[in-house]
Amino acid sequence: MRRLLRLTPGLLALAALTAPGCQQNTWRNDNLSGNLQFVGDPRIENVVAEEGARIEYTEADLPVFQVDLRNLMDDQEARVQWRAVWYDGRGIQINDPARVWHPVILPARGSIPIRSIAPHEDAVRCEIQVQLLNPIE
Amino acid sequence: MRRRLFHPPGLALLVAAVPACSVLEDYPEATAGAFAAFRNGRFEEAARLYREREGALESDRFLSLAEAGTAWHAAGRLRRASKLWLEALEVAQGFRDRPTISGRGAVEGTLSMLLNDKTLPYDGEGFEIVLLHGLLAWDYLRLGRLDDAMVEVWRGYDAQKLEEERYGTTYGMNRFARFVAAVVQEQDGALDDAALDLRQLRRELPGHPAVEASLERIRTLRGPEARDLLSRSELILVFEQETMPPKTSEDLVFGYGKTLVRITAPSYRRGPGPVRRLRLQVDDREAGATELIEDVYAVARENLEDRVAWAVAKSAGRNLGRAVLIDRLGEEAGERHGDWAEFAVRLAGNLLNLALEQADLRSWRTLPANLQVLRVPVEAGRHSLDLELEGGGRLRYESVGFPAGRPVLLSVRSLRGRLYAHLSGAEELPDPTTTEAEFQP
Amino acid sequence: MNLPIHHAMKPGLPFVLGLLVLLGGGACSSSTTYGDPEGVETIDDTFGSTDLLMIAQKMAESFTSTNVWEEERPTIVFGGIRNRTRQHIDTTNITDTIRTRLIQSGKFTVLAGGQGISEIQQEVDYQQSGAVDQAAAVELGKQLGARYVLYGRFTEIKKEDSDTRDRWYKFTLNAVDVQTRVIIWAEEKTFRKTTEKPLLGW
User: Interface pTM (ipTM) of the complex?
Assistant: First the structure.
């Protein structure tokens, strides 16, 4: 069983500093890494922001990545969608037959955690993509 | 302003559009061929003919699908029937999902005020929707799809609740679905739920043999004799008697000034005839007779009686409006072209008014006039079954395999006294959905 | 260069009608495109593809990340999912996706059940029919038995008035130990879909 580790705020700050001006932040924990990426309409950056994250192993040896999303708007809810894509150590994407964009509604100034568990224990890197909700209507 | 009223091209367009919109057509007449095919047991032809007629602007699409579905249902083609019936329910749902202020609804409403109620789409009377769910539940049960049967039971309850909220009464329109629900729940092991439905039925139909038999079964299944009961089989018989009578038009024609007025309303002038029971013999021994669980005709009649006042009011309003219009057009024609022109316009106007004012006679004609049920315990093994309609046809199954612990479902329809029957759940049936017994006059 | 002077440019009735027909035809013609199969679908409040995948993902994630199994590689079989919603839903669609993900995780031995068993029986019958060389035929009595059975229930609470329809869904999946009858794992996914009737429209 691999040891469970937790990111410290210092590590978080370091990660943020190493990627100045970039649209994505990367969080690391041992051999695991996770990053959050805003995609699609660039106005998403005015709507939500990430607020801390952690990546670690579950007790069943599968990596789990969790990021808190916060609504930056004072007076209206934010409607966004997110999905997680996992990669193995060679950078090959791991297939997930149940992958889907998850719709999320954040109340004004509210935050919620979004969480993804890897579909395979070979996974080492997670990329969570977030964009403005763009449903098929 | 008066001059603009008399606009010959506009009037001509209106007159030309009227036949095209088939607003002069009576539903029972327009579907007479399909109905005759159905009554004579030519179900495939009936289904085809019903599907070919959806009315102007598809306003009769619900009926087209519901009637064609009933034809396949009577033929024992359950998958086809359920497909069409589900489509019919989608049509009805689509009507309810229209915007609060709907352009289409406004056009149809305006046309119905100008012409007649046949311009409105027929989305099924509440009791028809509820029965549709009940019949679908019965067909899904016969297909062995318990989950789907329960979906229809729940949807039937929802439709009934909607009727109750809207009109304050349901006329007992959901008794058949409740009976089917109890059978499904019993098979599913949900004995408490089944008992709840049966107790509700007992309140509405005290002493009904099939309801009492069902409650007795539930009691036994909860007790020490459950194993013994499960080693036996049973026959659940649903009998659909004949068809719904057509709606007819009640007319009142009188003079109003120089204009003829015709007020119309739909009614059931003649009923479907007496309730006839279906007698069952198992191995040539009397086993019981079906009992009424849903008097469809009585529900339809009460439903219509509650709504007829609104139809009469609309008819009177339409006539008044048209009478004023004809009066002004006649006067205007007289002023411009003399007395003969006034006479001609008034004559044409009156004739058009009389022709346009027609009662909406649409209804689901192939629905049975009533539904009857019977539950009979039968030992597992092979048995002969004889059915005899009071004053009508008979049929016999020489040998039906009854499985232990499961019921055999028998669905019978009478049409012009002939019986059309379909078995499901019996052992060694090559195709339970299409087996038809031979009619013996 | 002098061009001939055209007569009145006012469009005639046939022209206007023709234009309307063309526009009408254009508006009515349908078009088909490939879309994102992972996209959020909100066409109405009934059960849809997004709901299916969200349920499957939540169940599979929870199932694979737990560690309640007594074996290294538990042997599981899928039982039924009872549909207790107000919709005709093919629940095998949900279990198929969960099963695929569990198999691909490499952490479970997933046995065939239901439809799979009838397919197996058909093949075994054929192999025993005499047409197949018995040296190449499978040995009978070697099938595995499942230690855990997954079964569940999908329910819905629906509320409706003249303007709004609200559906609350709950999907529950349980894993029961066949030896002990103990339910050793359970997970739920709930979600809500609301449709409001527009005030204005065609």
Answer: 0.80
